[in-house]
Amino acid sequence: MKEALVRNRFSLLVALATATLLSPTAYSAQSAAKPTKSECISCHEKVTPGIVKQFLSGKMGKKLDCSSCHGLAHKSANDAAKATLPTPETCAKCHPERVAQYRKGKHSAAWLAMKAMPMITHQPTYIGGGGMKGCSACHKVGEKPAADLKRYGSGACDSCHTRHSFSVAEARDPRACQTCHMGFDHPQWEMWQTSKHGTIWAIEPTTGRAPVCQTCHMPDGSHAVETAWGFLALRMPEEDGDWLFDRVTILKAIGVLDDNGKPTERFEAIQKARLARLTKEEFDRDREKMLTACSACHSKSFAQANLNIGDEVIRDADRIFAESIRTVKALYDEGLLKKPEGWKYAPDLLQFYEAKSSAEQELYLMFLEYRQRAFQGAFHSNPDYMQWYGWAKMKEAAARIQDDADRLRREKRLK
What we know:
By secondary structure, the protein is an all-alpha fold. Among the domains are: 102 residues, no CATH class; 174 residues, Hydroxylamine Oxidoreductase, Chain A, domain 2 (Up-down Bundle), CATH 1.20.850.10. Helices cover 56% and strands 0% of the residues. The longest helix is centred in the last third of the chain and has 34 residues. The protein starts with a helix and ends with a helix. It holds the Pfam family Multi-haem_cyto.
């Protein structure tokens, strides 16, 4: 009896103590003791609240602090320049496999490819420097030397996983690609969007029935984005003799081969920027990757046949293009066109819209707009782009170039 009374009193004391510990007042005091915010967060909530909100909404904001990427040197508004600029090397600390893949693909060479273009040396800095208003705004996805690291857009990875949420879901959405892959010289977004693939996706965006950009170009999430033909649809060697003859003409016009067919100083730049496929093995490897991607939905024979047709479009477009190049080159040889001061090669397709004659302006459009749209439209299953924006425009431009050549010759005879 006595022992039972003692036990009851002890239980009552425990209950009272527990009730005190878990009272609303005590519980509120405990829950209010949140982890201390970093100095970065506390300051930037006042200065850039939107950035803080984005960062804390993402996965990185749950595990990292601003200083994980920007370092600790920046302490106040007066020394903001001391904040470290993230680079792919920064991202590799947590994502080594993805960064290694990225460095094997063409995105990593985007900045180098832009800088390799002679045209860029004639442009205002905000186009090809660090202003991110022209070419540089998209080509910032590439790795840059330290001298080219600017205050914005230097991370490369943040071109697709945009600041500061760095969302994986965003980068997996085909709309993440549209800012860069649209417009004048490579409208892949519009091509895909208005193709049957893109139409199905627009109707059924969540079923997975239609392939998106990432399905074909980033299989299994691989960041080694690259295609067999590359941006300029140029490859060497070429087994078809006639096609090889046309290809050599094109490579001379971009200054990669000299008049004797020997590699120039530009050859190495084109090679480093991966603007052309220079071995059969390299081409076949990337073609096989695309064939595998297509065969996930289509039969392998159907996929192979359609890729082969794309190759034929390039071959036939190259014939029209090369003949027009030879027409313009003859004008230089006849003295009807004068090599511009400072140009080593003429015609020089890599001068783009800096071309100095009407015929060469047409040649530039054939190179960077019409030919691109013809072969890219074919590979993206967009008949209108392939036919009317590509192939038809190639034929029109070729006729205008020949007319201009005839006009210059008539004017010379009249003199």
